[in-house]
Give the backbone structure.
Amino acid sequence: MSKFPWKTTLAVSAVLAATVYAVAQVSSGGPMGMHGQMQQGGMMNQMHSQMMQGQGGMPGNMNMHSDLQGGMGMHGGMHGQQSGALNVPAMPGQDAFGTIQEVVQILQTDRTMDWSKVNIGALRQHLIDMNEVTLHATAAERMLDNGIEIAATGEGRTLEAIKRMVPAHVSELREIGWNAKSEDLANGVKLTVTASEAQPLAKLKALGFMGIMVQGGHHQPHHLMMAKGEFPMH
Ligand SMILES: [Cu+2]
C-alpha cells in the first residue's frame, strides 16, 4: 500500500466509502441487509481474508444462509456470478477461464443435460488453439490483384492450432458467402480470400489475417456445442 501515492489511496478510499454507502442504501431492509454491517465492522473483509487463507469455516456469529442473505448462499454472494450485486467484481481475470465458466453455468442450468457427453477439456483445447492463432501465429500478408493471400505459420502448439483453425474457418467463410480457400504449408496454412463486391480489396487489406478470422457468428455457439460433445473438434 505504501508504494501508492497518497492521492490515489485517498481517491480509492473515497470510492470505496461511496460504494459501501450506496450498497447500504440499496440493501437496507432487503434480503442483502448484511452489507449495512460492512460499515460497522469490516466483517466482509475479515471473512474474505479468512477464505483467502484457506482457513475454511465461518465466524461463529455468522449464519448467512438463513438470516443475512435470504438463501442466496455465501458462494454466490462472494463471487457474484450473475448476481449483479453492486460491490462484487464480475471480471473473471482470464478470458478463457471466463468463457469456460459461462459455458459451464449454461450447462448446469439445463436439467436435461447429458453429462456423459460433456467435454470441457475439448473446449479448453480449442481455447488454447484460439490463443495460439490469435496471439502467436505469424501472419505474412501479400496483396494480390484481386484479393489477399496470408501465410499463417508457426511451430509446435501454434502450428497445430493453425492447422486446425484456419481450414475450418475457411469452411465458415464460404458458408457466409466469402470466396476463400486454404492450402497446407509445411509450417502452417495459406489462406487466400478473393475480393468481391461485398468484400472489396480495400476491406480485405484492412482486415488482414485476424480481421478475416473473426468473421461470422459461429464461434460462441460452437463453443457451447464443443462443451456438450456435439461438435467435432476443429
Ligand atoms: Cu473459438
Q: What stands out?
A: Strands lie at 138-143, 147-153, 179-185, 188-194. The chain has a mean pLDDT of 76.
